[in-house]
Amino acid sequence: MKYAVLADIHSNLEALNAAADYLANADINHYLILGDLVGYAANPNECLDVISKLPAKIVIGNHDAAAMDLRQGEGFTDTAYEAIRWTHNCLEPRWHDFFGRLPFIHITPSYTMAHAAIANPEAFDYLFYFDDVLPSFRQMETPLGWIGHTHVPQIFMAKGKSGAYLNEGKYPLDRSEKYLINPGSVGQPRDRDTRLSFAVFDEEAYSLQIVRLSYDSRKTAQKIREAGLPESLAERLL
């Protein structure tokens, strides 16, 4: 079984299509989508159309929750709140029902997935450092945990008591270790690499690949400007 693991798409249709085109030829069996499907960029409905057709397990992110109920975005930055208010107003009604069915956490015998922390997933805490992930490791009973939210590709190891940034490339995993893995962001990377980021997990080989791809970020930025969204959201992609 091969999984594509995507997080933080954030209404970026050009990035999502680039990732989907790559994965169409990658022998993928299933998709894990770690929330924040919308927010920031200008194609929420179009992105949701693409995502809804994938064989995927999906958890809800904080921007998705706020797109349904603006009160959930009251702690956002001014820029993020302006973008989610715009998203809320243009989101087609059918997607409110779609988001309403998404769980905060999904657990199988082999993996756990949440948008942010696995411990108290409704709080959407950021996990940047090893000390941040300890409550999630204590809560998690599976060998693998998949998280997003920070927009930075990282790996944390419970037995190794460490964490590391993940560069583009392939990584063998240890079946005796317990991992929390962040695949980075498809729609708005925040690691000083403007290329989109996602992961491919090969269950049989027990290996991880971080994939970085260029896409038409200038087109996405222009759409953000034309929608009247904050200029900083366009600049951030470039």
Helix content: 25-40%
Total beta strand runs: 12
Strand content: 15-25%
Distance between the termini: 35 Å
In which order are the strands of the major sheet placed? 3-2-1-11-12-9
What is the N-to-C succession of helices and strands? EHEHEHHHEEHEEEEEEEHH
Could you describe the 3D structure shown?
- The protein has 238 residues and is of the alpha/beta class.
- The protein has one domain: Purple Acid Phosphatase, chain A, domain 2 (4-Layer Sandwich).
- Helices cover 32% and strands 23% of the residues.
- It has eight helices and twelve strands.
- A six-stranded mixed sheet has the order 3-2-1-11-12-9. A six-stranded mixed sheet has the order 4-5-6-10-7-8, covered by helices on one side.
- Helix 3 crosses helix 4 and helix 7 (217-226) packs antiparallel against helix 8.
- The longest helix is centred in the middle third of the chain and has 13 residues, at 78-90.
- It is globular, with a radius of gyration of 17 Å.
- The model has no long low-confidence stretch (mean pLDDT 97).
Keywords:
8 helices, Purple Acid Phosphatase, chain A, domain 2, 12 strands, six-stranded mixed β-sheet, alpha/beta, 238 residues, 32% helix
